[in-house]
Design a protein that fits this description.
The complex is a heterodimer of chains A (590) and B (222). Chain A is mainly alpha-helical and 590 residues long. Chain A has helices spanning 3-31, 39-52, 63-86, 106-117, 127-130, 133-163, 173-198, 227-235, 256-281, 284-311, 314-318, 342-355, 370-381, 392-412, 425-451, 453-456, 467-481, 508-537, 554-585; strands at 209-212, 218-221, 417-418, 421-422, 494-495, 505-506. In chain B, helix 4 crosses helix 5 (181-190). The chains are: A mainly alpha (590), B alpha+beta (222).
């Protein structure tokens, strides 16, 4: 551990908060229909697009109509992406398939399509060995934008339901998605992409380079329009790498600076949404109480991961390596980590992308120490509420808030009230379902995969011996259920294409189970969250009395942390014990 | 319902054109005009020949043996066996699937923390490192081997090594190229990049640039 490493962590938390606060206020204005500084630029395009879409944008939608528009839009996106990926070779005339890659098989494409539409970006394929630039741009980049936008609209709708004063309206999905794309994602993406290109993230349509090295070898180097996808991948907490090794690839993440910048891109919107929530409730401290919970749990995870990785792994120690920092070397578990990021830059990035639904990686999680690897698993076990994905994070933690208010109310013997609205059985049931779907999907799929021969085939043949094999499997379905997309990359659902570019072949069992996992754990909670919003929207607001439990102070924050830890631990502790905890406690090699 | 279907269909096609064509082209245009070197991968040329990318690691091994074919399946015609070229600084070990430092097929090594295979790979790499550098840096022991010198990176395309690793290798390179250790260390320092913003990440030595500078020095001195 180094002073620079700890500095990185502290500076990151401070800069993030400083940037998220104004962005949160800005977003609150955008979704309240107020004039913002970009209104002169985007008001015209907004009207134009909504008219072009023939959208019924002036109608106020109740929760069912909102959900219906959202689901139909997602379905349209799913179908188009599936078609693009399956017809990759038909678009060779565009010149955007310089390597002549064939299309993937149906099972793999099912998984990839579900993955990108659900904001998961789980990747069973290798970007630079299977996908054309056409598929990456018109297929994946587009869903990087849209899946992020959809997540944000759900969060906005839920907040509207919570603060709504009578009436059933949650806003209008089409208006919200267009506003999100124009006012929030476009300016940040364009600026971010230009910063990334200026720092060495490539952006071209060249065919792969062939270099002749000074020692007489040849090296083939993949190219592509990377920066435009990289920025929205981080900003939309998508996480699907242009290249197989994601943000570890020097063309995606060339330096310590870009690493810091990309981490900010990942967390900026999820953090801003919390402040947006505070402003829209009319009491900023509501947002601060939740932000405190998130930041506390986030920093806890970072500290554990950093210490664990700086300590080194049993395999390193058995080989005789000394892993403490020495002059000129940071030491630690550098297996699967890049020199330019070091241990701190890798551990922090790992936590940033697993508390959110981002799932980008700049280091190999499979090679993390037992405890270091347990951190991302614990983050996922908290079901995306520590910042969480863009939108998903806020609506998920608000369901937990509802549960905490309910339980807190029971403890003090009062009717639970939240922001002046009485909570009744209906909302609690819906919130409970919304919270439980994700763990249920994760555990069900893990059980299916470990209990069947078809499932165990996906475990890495050489690396996945002993508890590591279970960790891989569990992580795979936990990550897909949380729409995260990071992986213990040894677990595979496809077979590397051969030299003839015959297209990646999928492993049907893993592809379908994973696809089901992602779709169920994305859309069911969305529907439940919108239903909660609908149930709350129509409720009368009564003024807070002496007996009202406050939700904007540290006491409540502690209660909320308790709820999150309790639900996560009760659900996932047995599974965590079988994998990473065993590995962390033993020096034994398998 | 029908209205939503119509809207969704139009929207998805229009947005695909805007976000999947217009937006990437805009970024490409800006990138190619304002930062052509970065946007195209920081290519490095020697005498007009492309030798690599500044930020993509590459192998500095030389061909030891070329198979004529007819032997074992893995020894098909043209397959080569390589060994590190001791006159050059050596990068981190790489285990991409197409052979070391295949930058068209990046992959994680996926070596587990509790895996015997990881230990064996580490032990093998330590042995190789000591064999290569031990004769020139007397007293080099396993305990002094920097972790980055024997652990594979995440991308398996790491362009950098740690300063400690470079300093150990400097003994070998200086001896084989008849340079003073101080001169080589000065070159290492020149090609060491600091932390981003002064704190983010670790300092690293760019292996390709360092080696090319050594070659230029040799050419100029001869």
């Amino acid at each position: 551990m180094t002073f620079a490493g700890w500095t990185t962590i502290v500076v990151f938390a401070v800069v993030l908060t400083a940037l998220a606060m104004p962005l949160g206020s800005y977003m609150a204005s955008v979704y309240s229909g107020e004039r913002v500084f970009l209104t002169p630029l985007f008001a015209g395009p907004e009207r134009f697009l909504l008219r072009l879409f023939r959208a019924d944008a002036d109608r106020e939608q109740d929760w069912k109509q909102y959900a219906k528009s959202l689901l139909i839009f997602s379905l349209a996106g799913w179908l188009l992406l599936y078609a693009i990926l399956r017809t990759q070779t038909l678009w060779d005339w565009t010149g955007l398939n310089p390597q002549g890659f064939h299309s993937g098989t149906w099972n793999l494409t099912f998984n990839t399509t579900s993955s990108f539409v659900t904001n998961t970006n789980w990747q069973y394929y290798g970007g630079e060995t299977t996908l054309s630039y056409f598929s990456q741009m018109l297929g994946l980049t587009v869903q990087n934008w849209l899946s992020a936008g959809v997540g944000i609209t759900v969060a906005v709708a839920l907040v509207r339901g919570i603060v709504g004063r009578g009436g059933k309206s949650l806003g209008n999905f089409w208006r919200d998605i267009v506003r999100t794309l124009l006012y929030v994602l476009t300016p940040l993406s364009v600026l971010g992409a230009i910063v990334l290109v200026s720092q060495g993230v490539i952006q071209n349509f060249s065919s792969y380079l062939t270099a002749h090295t000074v020692t007489g070898l040849t090296q083939s180097i993949a190219m592509g329009p990377v920066a435009s996808q990289e920025v929205i991948k981080e900003l939309g907490t998508n996480g699907g790498g242009f290249f197989n090794v994601n943000s570890a690839h020097p063309f995606e993440n060339p330096s310590g600076f870009t690493n810091f910048f990309e981490m900010l891109l990942v967390l900026i919107i999820p953090a801003a949404l919390v402040f947006m929530y505070g402003r829209m409730t009319g009491n900023r401290r509501q947002g601060h109480a939740i932000y405190g919970v998130m930041m506390f749990m986030f920093l806890g995870a970072v500290v554990v991961a950093y210490i664990a990785e700086a300590h080194g792994s049993p395999a390193q120690h058995a080989a005789g390596l000394h892993t403490q920092a020495i002059a000129g070397s940071g030491g630690g578990n550098m297996e699967g980590k890049e020199q330019r990021f070091g241990i701190a830059g890798s551990a922090l990035f790992d936590v940033v992308t697993t508390v959110t639904s981002c799932g980008a990686v700049n280091s190999a999680i499979e090679s993390y120490t037992g405890i270091g690897g347990a951190v991302p698993m614990a983050n996922l076990s908290a079901s995306e509420v520590i910042f969480g994905g863009v939108g998903t994070g806020l609506y998920s933690i608000l369901l937990y808030v509802l549960l905490a208010v309910f339980i807190g109310g029971l403890m003090v013997g009062r009717t639970p009230e939240w922001l002046g609205k009485k909570l009744e059985a209906k909302e609690i049931k819906l919130a409970g379902l919304g919270i439980l779907i994700t763990p249920l999907a994760a555990l069900f799929c893990t059980a299916m995969a470990t209990a069947t021969n078809a499932g165990t085939k996906s475990i890495a043949a050489v690396a996945g011996k002993g508890p590591q094999g279970f960790s891989e499997t569990f992580y795979a379905y936990l990550s897909q259920a949380n729409n995260n997309g990071s992986a213990f990359a040894g677990y595979t659902g496809y077979i590397q294409p051969n030299a003839g570019n015959l297209g990646a072949k999928g492993v049907t069992f893993a592809d379908l189970l994973g696809g089901f996992d992602m779709l169920a754990a994305r859309y069911l909670p969305i529907v439940f969250a919108l239903a909660v919003a609908g149930a709350l929207a129509g409720k009368r607001v009564s003024p807070a009395g002496l007996g009202t439990m406050r939700t904007d102070n540290p006491t409540f924050s502690v209660l909320l942390i308790g709820m999150i830890v309790l639900v996560g631990a009760l659900t996932f502790f047995p599974a965590l014990l079988l994998g990473p905890v065993v590995q962390g406690l033993t020096g034994h090699l398998y | 319902m029908r209205r939503d279907l119509v809207t969704a269909t139009i929207a998805i096609f229009v947005l695909t054109v805007l976000l999947g064509v217009v937006y990437p082209l805009l970024i490409t245009g800006v990138g190619q005009l304002a930062f052509p070197g970065d946007a195209n991968g920081q290519k490095v040329y020697v005498d007009g020949r492309l030798v690599g990318s500044k930020i993509i690691g590459q192998s500095f091994s030389r061909v030891k043996q070329t198979f004529p074919g007819g032997g074992k399946p893995e020894e098909k015609a043209g397959a080569i066996v390589t060994e590190p070229d001791p006159r050059y600084f050596q990068p981190r070990p790489s285990a991409t699937e197409g052979g070391a430092y295949d930058a068209a097929a990046s992959t994680f090594s996926n070596r587990g923390p509790n895996s015997k295979l990881t230990e064996e790979a580490d032990a093998e790499a330590i042995k190789g490192y000591l064999q290569l550098n031990g004769p020139y840096d007397r007293g080099l022991t396993t305990a002094q081997v920097p972790v980055d010198a024997v652990n594979t990176s995440a991308s398996n395309l790491d362009p950098e090594i740690s300063e400690a690793n470079a300093h150990i290798q400097a003994h070998r390179v200086a001896a084989l190229r008849h340079l003073s250790l101080r001169a080589v260390d000065a070159l290492v320092a020149r090609h060491t990049s600091g932390r981003g913003l002064g704190f983010s990440g670790e300092p690293g030595v760019n292996v390709l640039e360092l080696n090319l500078e050594l070659d230029r020095l040799a050419a100029g001195g001869a």
